[in-house]
Amino acid sequence: MNYKTINFSQYSSFKIGPTIEVALLENPSDYSKEFILIGGANNLLISNNPPPLMLLSKKYDYIKIEDNILKIGGATPSGKVASFCKKNNIANFEFLSHLPGKLGGLVFMNAGLKEYEIFNNLVDITTTSGKQTKQEIEFGYRYTNIKEPILEATFLLEYGFDDTKVKMFKQMRANQPSLPSAGSCFKNPPNNYAGKLIEEVGLKGFKKGAMEFSQQHANFLVNNGGGTFEDAFWLIKEAQKRVLEQFAITLECEVQIL
Ligand SMILES: Cc1cc2nc3c(=O)[nH]c(=O)nc-3n(C[C@H](O)[C@H](O)[C@H](O)COP(=O)(O)OP(=O)(O)OC[C@H]3O[C@@H](n4cnc5c(N)ncnc54)[C@H](O)[C@@H]3O)c2cc1C
Questions:
Q1: Is 117 a catalytic residue?
Q2: pTM exceeding the 0.90 threshold for the entire prediction
Q3: What is the CATH number of the domain that holds 26?
Q4: Cys-Cys crosslink for 152: which of 53, 124, 126, 227, Cβ 3.0 to 4.6 Å?
């Protein structure tokens, strides 16, 4: 098996984590259950001692139109998908121009912005154990029950790239912190907002070391520079504890902790 050395304090969007060897999935047979698949690490908080990690090789970085269907490899970055759709006048993927990730990570998380989610136009996925149609997958808000590495996904092809949507997504981002983060730290509980709850328990702008629940948007845990896993983890646990004590609400992490 081939490996790639990755420095997670540079690679991850949090800018936290060790420099370690990550296994490369070049063929489905390379995978075994001990590995956790990672994509662009835009939603990962990585400790100094994570489980064995695996990354899809460059072979899975592609996007093409075949038989009137859009086929995208699991290692394809969101920006590449957005550019391809703009160039080929394809609709429904405008939100990916402002949503970081690789296709496998986006599908696993059912990532999205407002009502625009990656599952909306999904047809099927190919994992290391074969094809699964959208109907065979359980999915919801930032949730899927996918168990194996996603190698490819296919999507309905509709024409009409909409530049006004790109502007709208850019505008949504304008109010969010630009410091290193993983986007929303917690999922919004039903009929509530994680950011509002964090503010109400007094943690908006609260710092531990260089980590902070952003003053600009409390559900963004940001790294002011040189932040550590331990400080980030402490803040996550503190927010969960306070929100549970004061509101009897369990804040579920959107960020995946390894
Ligand atoms: C500034 C910022 C803003 C963000 N805004 C949003 C937003 O508005 N909406 C939103 O939904 N998310 C948002 N995110 C989070 C992030 O963009 C998404 O969760 C995205 O789907 C992560 O993709 P990734 O490739 O980086 O996955 P990673 O972070 O590497 O992994 C995320 C999860 O996916 C799994 N995974 C990764 N690749 C595969 C694969 N090939 N097969 C199976 N499982 C896999 C991992 O095991 C992990 O559980 C934001 C992040 C940042 C940094």
A1: no
A2: yes
A3: 3.30.43.10
A4: 126
* Minimum CA distance residue for ligand 1 atom 6: 183
- What one-letter code names the amino acid at 181? S
CA 169 – CA 34 distance, rounded (Å): 37
Q: Which domain holds residue 157?
A: 59-167
DSSP secondary structure letters along 15-34: ----EEEEEEE-SGGG--TT
Mean pLDDT split into 10-residue runs, the chain, 258 residues: 97 98 97 97 97 98 96 98 97 95 98 94 97 97 96 97 93 91 97 97 98 97 98 98 98 97
Mutate to test the pocket of ligand 1, among 11, 106, 108 (most ligand atoms within 8 A of CB): 108
Q: Tell me how many domains the chain contains.
A: 3
Note whether 63 and 155 are same-domain residues: yes
The per-residue DSSP string of 63-83 comes to: EEEETTEEEEETT-BHHHHHH
Pocket test residue of 38, 115, 168, 256 for ligand 1, highest count of atoms within 8 A of CB = 38
